[in-house]
Inverse folding.
């Protein structure tokens, strides 16, 4: 039986006409993928404008072409973020797409986690975008509807973790890079969890919960064995599910025994889970999510970190957190 070709969504606004890699591009019509541009022809400004005017948000590429696309977008990211021509929205789409490609690649090819320079470049670009755009949260958009939930969630959590650290503490550039690296890899251990558990729509049974709860430790042990991540990054991967009242895992730590960066990542992780579901739909407004974390999850999180979270996300113009 012939294997079905897998297509990956690319946001139209993240594509630079003419210099985008020479790969076939498709448009999705219903459940079918229709060839728009074959190999051997540039994707021109005219193509870009035409698709945009027709309301096309995504084009699709073969999964086999993603390596060359990912390399191109990562190499171009810093230049585009510093451009005076692109709008904040376009920059958001670009850094969003680049980050999703990166996380997808790392989770699919775990041995690539040894390329620490690549990871740091991604975090530096994410930090550059956040620092230069006051409306960074609302400038970034999601492709969760295309089954990229785990990758999108990783980017959400990393972005909010960086914003919370910047708001609450004065960290050096290197410290922020360590924090961002740990946060974007916080769920790396889920590559060891069977897909049927991760994708289960109903409630998990006790045995499935036990398997799922192993992901922080398994992710930590794998990444520690690679010998490239800092202690801060590794701590975030291992301890982001610890809770102040000792009910968390894997070690059952309490309060100040839980490192600060792991606590912040844990807050960001729960907030992002509460506010956006696997289809990319907003499940509750930011202020409701924060109040739920204060009241129904009382004693799980440090109050001053919830204050920081509320200050960041509960603003008048805040529509949804979709980093």
């Amino acid at each position: 039986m012939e294997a079905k070709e897998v297509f990956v969504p690319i946001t139209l606004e993240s594509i630079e006409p003419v210099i985008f890699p020479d790969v076939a591009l498709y448009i999705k019509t219903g459940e079918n993928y229709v060839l728009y541009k074959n190999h051997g022809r540039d994707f021109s400004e005219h193509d870009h404008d035409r698709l945009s005017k027709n309301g096309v948000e995504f084009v699709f590429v073969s999964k086999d072409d993603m390596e060359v696309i990912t390399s191109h977008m990562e190499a171009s990211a810093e230049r585009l973020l510093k451009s005076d021509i692109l709008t904040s929205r376009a920059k958001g789409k670009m850094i969003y797409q680049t980050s999703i490609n990166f996380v997808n690649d790392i989770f699919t090819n775990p041995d690539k986690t040894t390329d620490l320079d690549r990871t740091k470049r991604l975090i530096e670009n994410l930090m550059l975008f956040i620092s230069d755009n006051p409306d960074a949260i609302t400038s970034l958009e999601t492709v969760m509807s295309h089954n990229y939930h785990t990758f999108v969630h990783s980017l959400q959590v990393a972005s909010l973790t960086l914003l919370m650290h910047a708001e609450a503490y004065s960290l050096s550039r290197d410290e922020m890079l360590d924090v961002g690296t740990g946060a974007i890899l916080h769920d790396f251990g889920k590559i060891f969890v069977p897909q049927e558990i991760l994708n289960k729509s109903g409630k998990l049974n006790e045995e499935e919960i036990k398997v799922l709860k192993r992901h922080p430790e398994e992710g930590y042990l794998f990444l520690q064995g690679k010998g490239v991540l800092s202690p801060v990054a590794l701590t975030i991967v291992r301890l982001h599910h610890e809770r102040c009242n000792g009910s968390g895992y894997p070690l059952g730590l309490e309060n100040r025994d839980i490192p600060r960066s792991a606590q912040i990542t844990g807050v960001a992780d729960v907030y992002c889970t509460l506010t956006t579901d696997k289809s990319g739909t907003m499940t509750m407004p930011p202020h409701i999510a924060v109040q739920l974390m204060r009241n129904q999850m009382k004693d799980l999180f440090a109050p001053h970190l919830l204050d920081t979270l509320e200050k960041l996300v509960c603003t008048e113009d805040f529509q949804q957190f979709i980093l």
Observations:
- Residues 201 and 278 are 10 Å apart (CA to CA).
- The two ends are 39 Å apart (CA to CA).
